[in-house]
Amino acid sequence: MPNKKKNLLTRFLKWRYKNISNKTFVHIMSVVVGFTAGLAAVSLKNITYFIQALLEGGIVISENQLYFILPVFGLTLVYLYVKFVHKKPIQHAVSSIIFSLSKKGGLLKAKNIYTPLIAAPLTVGFGGSVGLLGPAVKSGAAISSNLSRLFHIDAKTRSLLVACASAGAISSIFQSPIAAIIFAVEVFTLDLTMLSMLPLLLASISGVLTSYFFLGNEVLFSFSLSEGFELKDTFFYILLGVGTAFASIYFTKMYFAILEFFKRFKSPKYKLLVGGLAIGIMLYAIPPLYGEGFGFINNLLDGDHIEALGKTPFDAYTHNIWVVIALLFGITIFKAIAMTTTFAAGGAGGIFIPTMVMGSALGNVVAKVINNLGLGFDVSESNFTLIGMAGLIAGVIHAPLTAIFLIAEITGGYQLFVPLMITASISYLITKNALDYTIYTKELAKIGALLTHNKDQMVLGLMEMDDVIETNFKSVHPEMSLGQMLHESVSKSKRNIFPVLNENQKLMGIIVLDDIREFMFDKKLYDTVYVKNLMHAPPEHIFYNSDNMKQVMRKFQDSGAWNLPVIKDGKYVGFISKSKLLTAYRRKLINYTR
């Protein structure tokens, strides 16, 4: 049977090469991956809603005010799945996709198709304070990657189709095809040309049609604008932009601080226990932190802040608007903590939707403060709720255009384009200057796997050090005499540089042919001069485990050297030459831009 399938695939590939051009096949594949990614997103939502309905309707635990213990059960189930089935820690969805595009040619393992569909619903369905967008994107990207590998699609086109799948998943979840395309461009740093634009458009349309087919006209936010932009509110939108910028900086710093704290716990069991208890305490005090939070956003948009807050220990005081403001601000503060704690405890999910929840709370808080200061100002709380979401998205993931178009599309709020642009751009500019990297990109930047719109940096990020390391150098020992060195190494080498290594393959120094050229034929020195007397330190070292290609290029520039030794785990492994590095760079640049 496997041979029969292989033969069918081979026959199909031969037929395809003869009858369908590469461009047409890419367009067909973009529709296919858009549909499959949309299907994955719809499945993810339905599985999660089924779990939530089962818990709320079957167990009726929410009526007994015991819902805050549910995340511990969900995290435990995810822990068991990871330990016995997945067998590797679950990686952050978008970061792992960017790493795949940067270092693996868009290759993702097949288990990334179904793992998000299991782990994320267990996390979110049981109340984990994370979102479903990241897992949906990861599953769709994995489907696209494996289909591309099956049909022998080259690495560059495979990377484009992975971005197409991501656009399809986002379009399906939010029913916002334009924002989905922009997200793929901003986050995955695609060059927006007609070669990439049409596949992204086809995948995005395919994803949103999949959503309509399976979910009908169901929308995330049942809200339509009743108030447009008023010029007198411009200053307040600027103020909101500044506020969302500082909230974005807080969100990002808190994320990494909590993850760093949980690294102290070596065992996943301790992380689960501490994280589960912390989440339970936060949910008891602030119920809207439970799950994704779309119901919370909808209630704020409807102007029902009491329903948005739910039952809290402070219900007796919510008749006071300033208590309501304080509770909403508490959600702004603790959403980032609850989300990151869910991740740190072993949960699976995304950061995009928690960012929207936090932004909606902050926008609503700002509007309520303005309206209740007693200064005669009156602004639309629903509009500020929407624009607060855009400000947080722009600041946290450094994607201002995605933020603007997403909020405009999902609410029909094109009348708010001007305030969306004001708030999102201010939030982005302040956050970008304060933080070089986002939650998605910080760890990738450390290992040189970050994709950027800067072509030079992009190409360097796509290069692999293994491709430029040369090992055909004759090594010498420090105790070798000059005669031994000439006879055993120099006479047998085509290179003019010789690494000096000890018994443990540790680099002691180097000898360049020019160092010995003056006296290499003086036989009187053959037995009296030793390698250790001739060697000298290289102008710089390249460290395999820590240096990325951008740092390697900088070391060549700063040292002026033509060859630099590579050290891996404290041992010499070879040299990188400037000529080979530049040749590899030019080839990669040609392949990337053609």
Automatic annotation (TrEMBL):
CDD domains in the record: Voltage_gated_ClC (cd00400)
| Name of one Pfam family that matches | Voltage_CLC
| CBS domain: residues covered | 469-528, 535-593
Q: Where does this chain mainly localize?
A: membrane
Bilayer topology term:
Multi-pass membrane protein
Its subcellular locations are:
Membrane
Q: Which UniProt keywords apply?
A: CBS domain, Chloride, Chloride channel, Ion channel, Ion transport, Membrane, Transmembrane, Transmembrane helix, Transport
What are the transmembrane regions? Answer: 24-44, 64-82, 113-137, 157-185, 197-215, 235-258, 270-290, 321-338, 345-366, 386-407, 414-431
Which PANTHER family does the record associate with it?
Answer: CHLORIDE CHANNEL PROTEIN CLC-E
Protein name as catalogued: Chloride channel protein
Its taxonomic path starts at: Bacteria, Pseudomonadati, Bacteroidota, Flavobacteriia, Flavobacteriales
